[in-house]
Amino acid sequence: MILRFKASVLSLSIVSLSLWGAADVSGYAGQARSQRQQMPVYRGGVDLVVLNVAVLDDDGEPVTGLTAEDFKISEDGVRQEIALFASSSNTPLDIALVLDMSGSVAASAPAIKRDAKAFLDALGPSDCVYFVPFQEVVHAGTWSAPDAAALIYLLNRIPLQGGTALYDALARGLANVNRARYPNLPEDQGSNDYLRVDGDNCGSPLPPASLGIPGSVRRTAVVVLSDGGDEHSEATYADTLVNAWSNTVPIFSIGVGDALEPVARRFRNTDKRIASMMDDSFRSTRLVWWLRAYSRELQKRLRFLSEITGGRLVLGNGPATVRDAFDEVVKMLRSSYLVGYNQPAGNVSPGISGLSWHQVDVEILEEDASFFVRPGYYRELHDRGGAEQIVRESLELIAAERHSEAVKQLDLAARLDPGYWPIYLHRARSLLRTDRLEDARDDLLATLELRPELGLAHELLADTVFRLGNFKLAWYHAIRAAQDGVDMLPLVSELMRVSEGPPDLAEQLSAVRIFVDVGPPAVEIDQATLLELLRVLRSEMSVATDIALVSKSSDATAALILETQVVSGRPRKLEGKLVIRDRDWRQAIRDEKLEIDDLDDQAEIKSGISKAAYEMRVWIQKTYGQ
């Protein structure tokens, strides 16, 4: 039997920072392998799509001895030639060990330190470790061989206390393992400031084209141990997702600790009115739902972050299970194969606005085995030309705190392409750093006009209008951001000091989550019209406060898909439908007819979509309502 899996990959070329979507991951089994000795294989290619494929038998043990001939890869249904192949048995590992040393995991402190050392002992002599401890700040990282005395000393001497800066620590870990493996990456993909080359050469950038040198191929991974909370990072969760999708490094997460207590402590420390709730009756307050939902959300974030990269979340919730979690990660690292192919040119398929999703299917010949990898990758639907390049350049200016220059650059980009939402989002970031609150508010509103489900924009706008004194609008956007999974507890704490929240706060926070996207387009429809239809649909669905639009399908209860079936005549008439599917798009649950008499008339587009969207909103509210 041939086992097929919808695998995940990402091109080594830099992915657009407008990336926000993702897909779910699951594993399947396969059969019949041949026993052949394998060596690292590499055959050219500039834009290499790389997969880390972990293969385990029915007992959860690594499957060894597979060769390139045991794998088949297809992208969008087209078979691809394997250009890179290496196994764990002959491929050393560069690994970032990102350890949460904050107070929220203090209860597991003895187990964390003891079992982290055992994890290091289980690595191979040719492996290298970049150790990144973090609390409310990210401590200086250290490259070292796994058994280095200095590394063990550093692990033992750091007390577990303080807050957390998880996202910043992950960014540093990803940057360093990439710099060690791909020395020609741009500077913004990993700062040399954090690279330390020890006498054992761990952390040294490999020679150019090292993937093509037999014996020089190295695998990479990040292992992070944390409760998933983050109180002090400059990076956001959205930034971390973009970073993860922009790398080929699998992230293996070990979930430990209790994130609920730090959240409650933050409320105690910032609001006396809330502090009065933090007694024996605390768990009967209306905040309980939100606090518990937040704690579950942290675990879900770790799981999602791991799975989109081809890794896994393993729970180690008590001292007795931390070692088991580390052992499970070691098994997965030992079972991985590095498989790559050259990215096909020119093929695009519809996906989230401005990007195209490329499904990657893997077939493996192996009896009684399971395996897991990433589910696919995104590519630009169409070239944004000069506007996109200007946005990329402006991001460098923003990172360098040169905000006036960045705003001027983005002004030009807006004239070139007024429909490109990252322009307004990033310009708002610079405007906020220079205290131009009204201008930033206008840009964030423009962003949400184009992408009304974007949690990051709601988060920034909620904070902006709060500073401008518009508390009612701040509540609205804070709730919208929370519906998309953004941590809004700090701002809500501030809001509760000065303003009553909406009476249906709990109901809004538990609203049904809908992911809106387009299906395969009619042949006759152009890309610009398709994106405009999607924009209007999202806008129409966002008017209902008890329906939460989310930016990731994995967070959704269901997906609302715009299907454009037939475009005919002059003026162009559209016949299609809106379809509610499960979040994996596998099963159609409900559909609503969609007709637009003139695709070149903005009023006709709004009228047609508004009618169908209204019927769909009513059905969603009746079906999924509280």
UniProtKB/TrEMBL annotation:
Ranges where the VWFA domain occurs: 94-308
Signal peptide: none
PROSITE patterns: VWFA (PS50234)
Stored InterPro entries: TPR-like_helical_dom_sf (IPR011990), VWF_A (IPR002035), VWFA-rel_acidobac-type (IPR017802), vWFA_dom_sf (IPR036465)
Protein name: VWFA domain-containing protein
